[in-house]
Amino acid sequence: MAVLLSGQYSLPVSREVVYAALNDPDVLRECIPGCEELEVRSDGIFAAVVRLELGPLKTRFRGKVRLEDLDPPNSYRISGEGDGGIAGFAKGGAALKLVPDDEGGTLLSYEAEANINGKIAQLGQRLITSTSKKIADRFFESLTNRLQPNPRTAESQ
């Protein structure tokens, strides 16, 4: 089953800051919902263990993601795959673009496609798409919160 997702988020900081955060394993580990482990291997691949709940299915996915077509701080592509054991397998990619907005922040947009099989695919396209969108929204909400300028820092200067 193929799942298509796209989204757009406004972040309160420059493209350079957003791009750096999206390549920082500590930031990603903190912002990815259900992330239990995340490391950057010597070959540049991000390896992760993420606990997911998709409807009645709860599973741990072990996955690998590679960043490709790097154009800092404008864009890159993500390709990867994840194995959820008996729950199923997913493989896909996403294109991510960062554009400055009129207020000094960044407009982030993405388009993603994943191919899913196994028990997860039996849950149905609508449930998988809505759950995936919620996970993406939670990730970008966490990222936005992490990147918010700290008002106390500005006051203390």
Automatic annotation (TrEMBL):
Pfam family, one: COXG
Domain of life of the native organism: Bacteria
Protein name: Carbon monoxide dehydrogenase
Organism per entry: Rhizobium leguminosarum
Lineage start: Bacteria, Pseudomonadati, Pseudomonadota, Alphaproteobacteria, Hyphomicrobiales
